[in-house]
Design goal:
6-stranded mixed sheet; Peptidase MA superfamily; 16 helices; Glutaredoxin; 3 domains; binds zinc ion; alpha/beta
Amino acid sequence: MKTHLFIMILFALLIGCQNKNPLSLENKNINNKAQIDSISENVEVEIHARVDTSKNKIKEIAILWIEYLNSNPDIVSDNKFWNTEEKRLYNDFDFSRQLLYQFPSEQLLKYYKPKILSLEKEGENYAIRTIFSAEDQEPQYSKSNPWCITKLYAVKEENEWKLKNALPIITEDWNKEKVGKINFIFPASHKFDRVLANKANDFCNQITKEFNFQEWEQFDFYITQNGDDLGKLLNFDFFFAGYTTGIGMYENRILLSGIGSEFYPHEFIHLILPKFDRHPLIEEGFATWKGGQGGKSFEESAERLANELTQNSEVKFLDVLEKKWGWQNAAFYTSGAILCQAAYNKGGVDLVNSLLQIENNEDQLIEHICKLLEIREEDFDDFWREEVLKFTSI
Ligand SMILES: [Zn+2]
């Protein structure tokens, strides 16, 4: 959660950089440049001495990767450097895109400059490992450097090299078990728990039924033991921004878990909630209300927030919404959950569904909540505090 704050600071920094010093478009020399002189790159990519670009295949793949980094990889498009099969299967085919490019790639890649560390043959494929790090950072930012290290693959497709995600390569030999509409996929070292798997499928069905959601579509659920192993499936050898133990890709129907369990109710909710550009306070709130968060149930999270809020009488709802207060006790998620509970108490399933229709528009969030819960806007802060403090235990 600390990373959120860091991202906001970094965003200011990137914008600041841009204003002070318009990002240059010149081509700078890179190591081994003599070998790679056919590319005119906007984003500068360094190559470590370990990468032997005198070998033709290595040189071709390095060029492919550098061209990809120069092709606005933050934008979903029919990118010619990616393999056709994955582009056919997934609209958002580069699984590292969302976490890596939390800023436009042109800005990010000039600040956290890519350097290819290794490019090695693994079976039939070639693995490309790249570090994204910044130079000359202020001491307060250097702790957050590097941004990440990626590892993805190059494969041959009709005699041309194309990029490929690590996920299908890493999980090629993993075991698969289908329970209901969930395809559980896990390494041989993981002992499959059928009871929990059934509980997971039942949970998705039960929430769908209780809230009259449209039928949910099946999804692939990859189980790993920790955040780093999860990251590898998203093409990260090391990642920082967005480091997590659970991530769902709604459109791709893929869920990744880093907690080593078949049952991950919070993340299931994100995969079964009807697709809608709703406000994250409501989306995360509903997932926390029905599925808990951070290993805690809704009630435990609510009690923790209430006890903290009791001791901080000056805190307002906006401090939570703008993430100025309460990250350590997940105040944002839990406040959303408490609002879902309040809506349920007032108007049952129908009112919760109306809450779930609140769009992702910061300016109108409070107005919409107040309208639904029939509160005057000037009373909203008191209402929020009162609802939270119902869970106090001290
Ligand atoms: Zn969530």
